[in-house]
Amino acid sequence: MIRHGYFVAALFSALHLTILPAHGAEPDAAAKAEAAKRFDRGLTLFDEGDNAGALAEFKHVYATLPNAVVLYNIGLVYAAMGRPVEAVDALKQVASHESLSPAQRERAQSTLNDQQARIGRLSITTIPAGARISIDGVDVATTPLTAPLQVTAGSHVVGAVAVGYAQARKEIIVAGNAEATVTLELVPAATARDAQLIVRSRIQGAELVIDGKPVGKTPLTASIAVAPGRHLLELRRPGYVPSKQEIELSEAATGEVSLDPAVDRAALATEGALFSLDLGESNAELFVDQEHLGAYTGPVRLPRGPHRVRVEAAGFLPLERDIVIEQGKTNVLKERLEPTPATRAAHEADVRFHRTWGWIGVGAGALLAGGGAAWLGINAGTKSDARDALNRASADAEAEDVGPFCSLLDGVNSPAECNAYVADKEEEYDSAKRKDIIGFVGLGVGAAVAVTGVVLLLTGDDADKYGSRAPSQRRNLQWSWLAGPQELGFGLSGSF
After folding, report:
1. pLDDT at 485 exceeding the cut of 80
2. Measuring CA to CA, how many Å separate 80 from each of 54, 77, 131, 336, 418?
3. Which of 93, 317, 481, 494 could bridge 338 with an S-S bond, Cβ 3.0-4.6 Å?
4. What would you report as the CA-atom Rg of the chain, rounded to the nearest whole angstrom?
């Protein structure tokens, strides 16, 4: 994983260190800010396994601000994509560059050494010279070559075509750190002009075989020249049932064929690996190579190699990514679905509702509880005075050594008046005690309203659920024990 903060800081510090001469005017502050934003997004995509997206972002940044930090990351992405030739071209320029940290230079050099071991050299000769050379269906050079071509170690289909000659093809295997040689003898074309064949397939990395001879791998970006007549086409890839079709083409005609091999379920045990989604959303529909696999409920087994994945979920924009399934490792697409404007608006409305009424509940509850507590405090004085008055009246009424009955009570001279006086003081004390109910009700209602407000705050959606913060930085509710001298309890903590 790449540490974002460190590399973004490194990018800013290296903006003036160009590897290649910059052309045109110096980028302004807005362009530099945009480049830094794209650089950070490239790091995120790279960490999430979206190498194609990361490469696009880094190349855009490098076109604006060519510097060692960006080129270093471009080299790492090419290495992750299994494109050692491009990785070596990038890393050679930065492996010892002073603007990289020692750790970066060490990683650049080790990656460079590893990628160089994955490159072979291919010398191609054609008879006659002047032929256009293609490798795996992509035009790369014209003979005579001035130097061997660098190619990824493995199997390749080399083609050659020249005006007046029929196209020649040959399959060759090139080892890493080794050189292979191939000679293609072109045969003069017959009077009839070649037909053109366009082959389409939703399956990537499949080998096209025409009349038993390998031609190239999908996706085939250009048409294929074939002799007029009937041809047998076959598309092969490990983990799939080969797809076959015959086609007959007339002179100078153009034909188009779609070949889509079906997954060989029986071969998935040896030719497949598990693939899973980590989206943060449920009810996602999974499409692989344009085939609908249904609702995603757990890891699925796919043939190893490249695939195009599409994820759809109600309320979210579709997500498409190119992935490579590798055996012996965890294949996870970790992404965040982008909500539709309607989903985002509903989410923001829900957040506002919970926050507004949550804080209103907390505030109103605190006021009610505070008012109840204040009432109890004030009434405690009234209640204390009433109790003292009752105690004095009762003590005077029961005294046996003070002369006439209730003589100490002003204006009271008879037993009936004495009893009425004591009863009045009892009623005043009872009335003061009953008034405590108002305070307790205020405390209870206030606490209930405040708790309701806290629940609203904690149960509402994360305000940054669809924002820029990483999932680890978003709200996490946590229960915790609260222990101390003569106390034991628990609490709920979180950010909102």
Report:
1. no
2. 11, 5, 33, 21, 101
3. 317
4. 41
Enter the tokens of residue 198.
Answer: 């366009």
- Check: CB of residue 63 under 8 Å from CB of residue 55: no
- The CATH code that applies to domain 265-338 is 2.60.40.1120
Q: Which pLDDT value is given to residue 6?
A: 43
**Confidence (pLDDT) at 386:** 81
Residue 19 has pLDDT above 70, yes or no: no
For residue 33, what pLDDT is reported? 86
**pLDDT recorded at residue 436:** 84
pLDDT at 396: 64
pLDDT in tens, 212-262: 999 888 988 888 888 888 999 999 999 999 999 999 998 889 999 999 999
With b for 16 or more beta-carbon neighbours within 10 A and e for fewer, the 220-246 pattern comes to beeebebbbeebebbbbbebbeebeee
pTM: predicted TM-score of the whole model, two decimal places: 0.53
Q: What is the CATH number of domain 118-189?
A: 2.60.40.1120
Residue 415 has pLDDT above 80, yes or no: no
Q: Report which of 193, 296, 302 is spatially closest to residue 252, judged by C-alpha positions.
A: 193
How sure is the predictor about 169, in pLDDT bands with cuts at 50, 70 and 90? Answer: confident
Q: What is the dihedral of CA 277, 282, 287, 293, to 10 degrees?
A: 100
Average pLDDT, the chain: 83
- Please compute the mean of the pLDDT values over residues 353-358 and round it to a whole number: 90
3-state secondary structure the chain: CCCHHHHHHHHHHCCCCCCCCCCCCCCCHHHHHHHHHHHHHHHHHHHCCCHHHHHHHHHHHHHHCCCHHHHHHHHHHHHHCCCHHHHHHHHCCCCCCCCCCHHHHHHHHHHHHHHHCCEEEEEEEEECCCCEEEECCEEEEECCCCCCEEEECEEEEEEEECCCECCEEEEEEECCCCEEEEEEECCECCCCCCEEEEEECCCCCCEEEECCEEEEECCCCCCEEECCEEEEEEEECCCEECEEEEEEECCCCEEEEECCCEECHHHHHHHEEEEEEECCCCCEEEEECCEEEEECCCCEEEECEEEEEEEEECCECCEEEEEEECCCCCEEEECCCCECHHHHHHHHHHHHHHHHHHHHHHHHHHHHHHHHHHHHHHHHHHHHHHHHHHHHHHHHHHCCCCCCCCCCCCCCCCHHHHHHHHHHHHHHHHHHHHCHHHHHHHHHHHHHHHHHHHHHHHHCCCCCCCCCCCHHHCCCCEEEEEEECCEEEEEEECCC
Give CATH superfamily name and number for 4-116: Tetratricopeptide repeat domain (1.25.40.10)
Instruction: Check residues 25 and 318 and name the one with the higher pLDDT.
Output: 318
